[in-house]
Each structure stands twice: as C-alpha cells, then as structure tokens.
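thread: overnight batch results

M.L. [08:02]
morning all. the overnight job finished for the chain we discussed friday. pasting input first so we're all looking at the same thing
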Amino acid sequence: MKSYEVNFDGLVGPTHNYGGLSYGNVASQSNSQQSSNPKEAALQGLAKMKALMDMGFQQGVLAPQERPDVAALRRLGFSGTDAQVIERAAKEAMPLLVASCSASSMWVANAATVSPSADTADGRVHFTAANLNCKYHRSIEHPTTSHVLGAMFANQQHFAHHAALPAVAQFGDEGAANHTRFCREYGEAGVEFFVFGRSAFDNRFAAPQKYPARQTLEASQAVARLHGLRDEGVVYAQQNPNVIDQGVFHNDVIAVGNGEVLFYHEDAFLETDKMLAELQGKLAKVGGNFQSVCVPRSAVTVDDAVRSYLFNSQLLSRADGSMLLIVPQECQANERVWAYLQSLTSSGGLIREVKVFDLKQSMQNGGGPACLRLRVALNETELAAVNPGVIMTAPLYGSLTAWVEKHYRDRLSETDLADPQLLLECRTALDELTQILKLGAVYPFQIN
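M.L. [08:03]
and the structure it wrote out:
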C-alpha cells in the first residue's frame, strides 16, 4: 500500500498582525508594532501550498482561529457585549487585546504532535494538541485546534485524538516544532525524534539563561506514552541551551528531518554524537539507513540561521530519492547562507535542489516554511478517510484565493484591533470558510 507525507499548511487568519508577543523569537520582537498585510500573508501561504501541489506533493490546509478571542477576554474579567469587551480591553489592557487577536495559529507546526499508524500500538494515527503553555497568546489555541483537527480527521477507525497536556510549565508542549520522524518509507515503522529544551524535574539537564526553553522532556515523554510508541522507536535529545539563548526558540529553527535524513546545525544539540548513534541504531533495526547533514558553524553561524531561517525549511523527498529544500527568500538574501546552499546542492549529495518562496509576512512575525505546515504520514486508506474538503486541489486554491480577496484587509495596525467591526469580519469569513472546507461547526461562535 502506498503511503505519503501530507503537509497541512496553516491558512493565515484575517487578524495577522505584528504584536511582538513572542519573547525569544528575534523576528517577532524586532518587527513589533509594524503594520501588517493580512491579505498578502494569506495569499503568500496559499501560493506555497499551490506550488507544492503542482510539484506532485500531497497538500492540505488547516483553518485559522476566531480572533479576537472575546471569550478569552471575558475569562480575564471584561464584560458586556462583544463590542464593549473589545472597547474595554483596548482602553484598560491593550496588550491583552493584542494577544487575543494574534493569528499565530497560522504556524501549525505547533498545532499538535502526530504519530503515524505504523508507529503506534493500536495502529491508528495519533494527534495530541499542543498546550503552547509558554506564551499566553498561544495557550488559548488548543481547544479550537482540537475541534478543527477532529473535523479533518474524524474517522475513529483510523484516527485518535488526545487533549492537550496539563497547562502547567512542567508539561510545556510546542507540538511538531520539536518533533520529527525518521523512516525508510512513510508507511513503515520509524523512529520518532523528540527534542526538549529542559527537564521540569531533573536538574542534571542544563537550561538556557536568557530565553525560556518551551518544550520539556516530561511533555515529550507524555506524548510518546499517549501515542503508544515503543521505547525502541523513540529518541529524546536536548536542544543546546546556548542556541536557545540566541533565538532558537524551537528545534525547527536549527534542524529539520525527513525520511532517513537529519539536516542540522553543528551547535543544535547537546551530546550530538551520542544522539546520532542512537538514531542510527534504532532506525537500522526497522530497516532504515539514517544519514545526517551537518552544517558547520564556520559556514553558517547560529545568528545566520536565526535570521535567514535556513533550517525552518521543508525537506521533501523526490520520486528519484533525492531531496528538495523549500526555503524563504531571506536565505537568498544572506550571502553566507546562500553560498552554503549553492555548495550543498552542487555537491551531488542528498539535497539536490533548493526552491525559494516569498513568505515575508510570516517571516517578519517569526515563522518560516516549516512553521506553516503540520506533517501527517498517511497510507492510502487513511488518506481516503481524511475530510476531502481540506485536501488542496486547483478548484480549492481558486476558492480560497477568492475568499481571501473578499474578506481580508490589506493593512492592519494595533489601533485597528480595537475596531469591533474586525470581529464581525472575521466571523463572517470563518463561517464561509467552514463551508468551503466542509468542516461543520468548529468555532465557538458557531457552537455556542
């Protein structure tokens, strides 16, 4: 039976703005308070989805969330009509209104951790929504994330869904941004690779000193248990705390894996040699041949990696066994990074081609190509069980492009977030979107 890795990209929401909410994310903080262009952001994301579909890759779409999140503001003590809640929040606590308007759910690499059926004890694809507990504006996402994923992957014979882990610091979980999987074929048993920044209970592990380590070892272990993963099919690795302090807030800012290949920076991990040996040994037991491509710090510094998002790229398998790297324009603009990529692709190694995409609107807020996609390995039967409304096709691309053109603003500043009309615009757009994607009622305003 054939199997695929399907990329489900996050559709950028109508309230895309530069709130500077993500401490530890250099781009997010440095572009804070600039005016954004939600329409351009959504169209840039859709263009990438369409391009990958046209290249023959399986591509899907994951819907954005309702924003501003008026219910979240009500939980913080604001009352009255929806318009009054927004008005009060803007007047009394603008940072809370900005947080409630964040379109950060576009970065669906943080939506959940996904384990394919070939790895799990019950033979189903397992999803655990990430609690994103480190940042308030992201911690409010997981209830709707669970509803949307449940509507996309609804067949209980093939799919299992788990609620987010307890919303406490000890179980901080950032989803697939700190998780990848190595395998010979997507439908065969593989090795799941969990990367953590700190341990909540074991002080033998070093921790960063400047920026928070968002993923804990304990959260990764809990997800592995929930998904019924075998010990011999799991490897845990610690992210280098020094690179976290340089702005590497997730592992997918410093490493990316696919198939049998790990593409990573020399400074990405602690105890790298031990980790690589464990990956190689465990993958060999299921018939795989683990390979790694290390980018030396002499060629690309950590600062280069953070500013260009070289590793926040998509590593995709071609039919001939070679690999394609999808990178943002910022890689081409960085002289050292681009020189390295030219050398890499001309060397005849595993990664043979680089394609560049304009994702400036997302990049300025701290998210590149890898942030925008959630990978789900599916066999043919499972793919057929996915809600067909969320699988990208040429007609769906046309419908979504027209939908964005109809509903999105082309400029949004912080003062615009206080406009109650923005909430009505968002709800009208999302109500129409659920019909386009055949999701049913997934948003609070539709359910309550």
